[in-house]
Amino acid sequence: MFMQQQFDNEVLYYTFPEFEKYDDIVHAFSSREGGVSKGFYRTMNLGINTEDSMENVLENYKIFCDTIHVDMNKVVLAQLTHEANIRNVTAADAGCGLLKPFTYEAIDGLLTNEPGLVLTATFADCVPVFFYDPVKKVVGIAHSGWRGTVKEIAGKMVERMISDYDCDVRNIVAGIGPSIGVCCFEVDEDVFYDFTDLTYLGDGWYYEKDNGHYDIDLWRVIWSTLTDRGVLPENITISGICTCCNRDVLFSHRATKGRRGTMAGMISIKEQ
Fold it and tell me: Which domains, ranges and CATH numbers included, belong to the chain?
C-alpha cells in the first residue's frame, strides 16, 4: 500500500506520503467510516446523486472537510460524466455542485492555482488521479473511470497544466488513488479493444481469461498515459488499494451491484 491511513475522530481517510511532503497543500481520499449515513450508505456517503438524504450528505461533507481542515463553502465538484473535459477552477466556482448548482457541464477534471478552493471528485471504483506542481503551485484531480481512462483524461490534465499554467512536466507529481484493481476489473472483448487504441501501452496491463474476458489494470494504463506525456515515473504513486476487495471500508459499485455510497477525493492549496 502506497497511501497512509489516517484516523481522526472516527473518520478514516487516506493520503499520499509523496503529497504530504508539501506543507502548502492538503489532500485526502475518504473511506466509508466516520459519517452519519445509514444502511448501505454507511456512513461517510459523499455522493450527491444517491438516494441518501441530502441532509446526511451535507453533514458528511461538513465532518470530512472539518477533519482535513478545508472550507466546505469552497468545495468545487466534478460532474462525473465519464468524459475527458477539464475545467480551470476560479473563485467564482466555489460551492458548485454541492452548495449551489453547477455552472458547467460534463467536467471530470478540475485544475486551479487559486488557494482555498477544494477540488473534489467522487468515486466508488473509478480511479481518482491527484496532481500537484510544487513549483507553479497548481493542483488538480481527475475522475478516471474506464471510459475516461481510454479517453486519456490523466494525460489531458498534464497537457492542460503545461499549456494553461506553464508547468514543467518534470515537476508534476501524480497520485493514483483507491479504485478497482486488476484483481476485480473483468471486462468483455468490446471494452478490451477500446483500450488497444492506446498504442503506447506495453505489456502487463491486462490478463486474458479462459471465458473470453479480460482483467484490465487501470492503474497501469493510467501510469503509462502519464509517462507518455512526460511525467517522471518516480513522481507517480499508485495506492495499490482495490475498492472492490476492501468493501468493508470503501464503497464499491461492482462489489455491491450499485447498492453503495460514494467516496471523495479532495485537493486544495492552503490559504496563507
Answer: 4-180+235-269 (3.60.140.10)
